[in-house]
Fold these 2 entries.
Entry 1:
Amino acid sequence: MSDDLFDMTGKVVAITGGGRGLGREMAEAFASRGAKVAIASRKAEVCQQTASEINGELGAEVIGLGLHVGRWDQIEPFVNEVTEQLGPIDVLVNNAGSSPLYSTLTEVSEKLFDSVMAVNLKGPFRLSALVAEQMAERAETAGTGGSIINISSIASAEPSAAEVPYALAKSGLNTLTVAMAHMYGPSVRVNCIMPGPFLTDISQAWDMDAFNKMARNRIPLQRGGKPSEIVGAALYLASDASSYTTGSIIKVDGGMTWAPA
């Protein structure tokens, strides 16, 4: 397979939750292959700092914006801002996520439940609908569509007791992926990456002895993922390499999840 298939030159990529972790890794990968990238999160200053660092390292065009994806009144202005600064969005990555801790299911408050649904499902639904519509309209006039990549979780297939609201939201994101692939094809491709445990900054709070023991027993590759190991799937789904792939949910979990995607 020619490396040209992964060329992103001139493409405009918008990534939510792009200031750190897997979002940052994907932003760097897209920028290194010629894309213009907008990264967004609730912490605008973090995204602006990340954008500055990637610009300095790669000489790429990367901007950082503030966006609470769970608030619909912020979504359309975000799309407009990206379009104004970089151009129409060619690739949307719904990466923002939130899974607050709780003790028991009865202790899950309505506020916590609604917040998890807003960030992990309600926001991606609205953002995807707006961007997909624009992509489809552009395909009619300019002949180019786009790609939407949802970042789900293996919790959507095998939820633990500690992440039930999150698992519900991410399983909804899986459903949204398939539905939108059918609704917006052939001009817009919609796919999903289902990550397992990755050793990002979040993992710094983990009990690593317990995690490593679990990994040896439950993960065929017997370890957590390195953040850079999300890049291959993201580049595949964003680029022409996946021109015949839509409605797919790709597990990137070291083999941990038994259930099929």
Note: The mean pLDDT is 95.
Entry 2:
Amino acid sequence: MTNKEEIHCHCECGKTQLNVAKPPMLRFHCHCTICQKLYKQPFSDVTVMWAKDAKLIQGEFIEYRRPGLLLKRGVCTQCEQPILATMTLFPGVKLAFVPANRYGDQSLLPKPSAHIFFHRSETAMDDGITKYNGFVKSELIISWLIVKSAFAQLFAR
């Protein structure tokens, strides 16, 4: 896949759609209770990219729920499914998070790098992916993985 091809993503009902300019730089599983409630799943399977690379093309039905200080979680108001979250790190530096199951072609996604907030996990897992317990450890590892992936992407150009 070349960087010129866009990856199409959509919610379950198709009312909210976005295009991603290039494959995401990171993928992880989050077991926090917020994700469990929002995704109605034992964990979320999420991809990360620069926000400039994720563009809503049909987004009149998106509503941002459970806003935190940094992370704004966008849900389609028609099917009630997460579609796009954003996080501003610094003025002008913003990340986007898109659930892995919103991509039409899963082969374009990186392999998951970590399970975070695993102390909240509802099931035991032996999938070979490193698990991180606790709030501080989970926040630190996901921050490190994002920085590491961002630098790798910058130097790959």
Note: DSSP finds two helices and ten strands in the chain.
